[in-house]
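Quick review question:
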């Protein structure tokens, strides 16, 4: 199957959408993005990439990077990670403090902010620089050595990061954070600030379509661990809209408030779509619509 005609048809459909949402206004560096922008890429396991629109334009990856940090830590500590973060959908906003208290400082899953802070903490403890470990991985898997942090975005998030600081301090009070909170927040904000294109992120996600095998043929995750990451993406990857995303798209996916979404068809391909306009739950309006159209046109789904 060649994906190019499918992508071109999707781009035409997206171009006719009357409302593509609004950019993330609470992060000033993202607020000025034009919600009409759109890009989409599909990468096959052998590294062949198809794209449409602004598929080679870098954008702020934001929470999309949480998938890679999770995989890097899971590869190092295995199931011990799950003693510190759960695998259940939260049902609450991604930056909620509510559940942490009555669940003893253990976040519901690795993709809400509290859970991602725990994963970053554990990876940082093992590597000495979680953000650098993430960036090296993304550069290698995407084949793009020019990938970098956007320090303006990181500074913007830091200046408006009181809720993340509260989450980190609260979990530290339960003994679930080992890194000093200011250091952890710097690591976390840099991680979220990575600027990458749809092509970069589709390629970097390829190890999940290859059941844990990296682009060079080496194994990052066991087949079982790759299945675990895909499963958590399906149930928790799009904030508190994961049920609707599974219903509409039927693929493991992870979104970010920069407007990006990655998705996986195990054994077949990986995708990344970008549209900066978000819905009320923080997911790209055109991105979800494009992935919905992709699975409809191709018949590719995990169901």
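Suggested answer, residue by residue:
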């Amino acid at each position: 199957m060649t994906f190019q005609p499918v992508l071109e048809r999707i781009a035409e459909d997206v171009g006719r959408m009357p409302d593509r949402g609004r950019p993330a206004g609470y992060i000033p560096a993202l607020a000025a993005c034009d919600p009409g922008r759109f890009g989409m890429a599909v990468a096959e396991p052998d590294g062949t990439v198809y794209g449409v629109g602004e598929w080679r334009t870098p954008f702020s990856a934001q929470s999309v990077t949480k998938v890679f940090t999770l995989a890097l830590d899971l590869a190092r500590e295995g199931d011990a990670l799950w003693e510190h973060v759960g695998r259940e959908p939260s049902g609450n906003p991604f930056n909620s403090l509510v559940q942490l208290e009555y669940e003893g400082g253990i976040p519901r899953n690795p993709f809400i902010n509290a859970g991602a802070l725990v994963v970053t903490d554990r990876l940082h403890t093992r590597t000495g620089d979680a953000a650098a470990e993430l960036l090296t991985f993304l550069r290698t898997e995407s084949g793009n050595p020019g990938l970098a942090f956007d320090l303006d975005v990181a500074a913007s998030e830091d200046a408006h990061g009181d809720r993340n600081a509260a989450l980190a301090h609260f979990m530290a009070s339960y003994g679930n954070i080992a890194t000093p909170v200011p250091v952890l927040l710097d690591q976390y904000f840099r991680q979220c600030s990575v600027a990458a294109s749809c092509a970069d992120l589709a390629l970097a996600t390829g190890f999940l379509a290859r059941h844990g095998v990296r682009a060079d043929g080496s194994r990052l995750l066991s087949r079982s661990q790759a299945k675990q990451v895909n499963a958590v993406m399906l149930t928790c990857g799009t904030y508190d809209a994961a049920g609707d995303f599974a219903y509409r798209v039927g693929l493991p996916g992870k979104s970010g408030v920069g407007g990006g979404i990655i998705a996986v068809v195990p054994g077949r391909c990986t995708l990344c779509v970008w549209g900066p306009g978000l819905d009320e739950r923080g997911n790209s309006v055109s991105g979800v619509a494009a992935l919905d159209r992709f699975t409809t046109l191709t018949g590719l789904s995990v169901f």
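Why it works: The mean pLDDT is 95. DSSP finds 14 helices and eight strands in the chain.
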